[in-house]
Specification:
- The two termini are 27 Å apart.
- This protein has a single domain, classed as Muramoyl-pentapeptide Carboxypeptidase, domain 2, CATH 3.30.1380.
- 31% of the residues lie in helices and 12% in strands.
- The protein contains four helices and four strands.
- It has 147 residues and is of the alpha+beta class.
- The radius of gyration is 15 Å and the shape is globular.
- Bound molecules: zinc ion.
């Protein structure tokens, strides 16, 4: 991906296309899940929901140490150094399917990446990871946003 690409203008529908072209809004569930997350990550999510072509729900934001320990015990996470503990990560799922289908999750991830680029807030998508693919996970870059 080139950093020199111009920012794509958001083409607004004049109403003759389907309403979904006007973008989605964050559900109350998402807003509740984003409580206590880093304000820059919140900005990325808030822009991503307007850019995405597939609706999503934020399922989790900040975790407590106890919650993280349960996730590790259940095999849902591999680390006690999760970015969720410091409010620098969110998990999402495609809505209304809740399918976690990798292709759909990737479509939504593109909206997160585009939002991050427009805001100049570096993020990482867990679906790009090689060692432990975590396609529902978005986190702030740990160099720019240390724990
Ligand atoms: Zn996560």
């Amino acid at each position: 991906m080139s950093e020199k690409d111009p920012i794509m203008p958001i083409l607004m529908s004049d109403g003759e296309d389907s309403p979904s072209k006007e973008g989605f809004v964050l559900s109350n569930r998402s807003i509740k899940a984003m409580k206590d997350i880093h304000p820059d990550l919140r900005k990325v999510v808030e822009l991503a929901i307007t850019l995405t072509t597939h609706d999503f729900v934020i399922t989790q934001g900040r975790r407590t140490i106890q919650q993280q320990r349960e996730y590790v015990n259940e095999g849902k996470s591999q680390t006690m150094h999760s970015r969720h503990l410091v409010g620098c990560a969110v998990d999402y799922v495609d809505y209304p399917e809740f399918s976690y289908d990798l292709k759909t999750m990737g479509v939504i991830a593109q909206a997160f990446k585009e939002a991050a680029k427009q805001l100049n807030i570096p993020i990482h998508w867990g679906g790009d990871w090689k060692h432990f693919v975590d396609s529902s996970h978005i986190e702030l870059d740990s160099d720019k946003y240390p724990d």
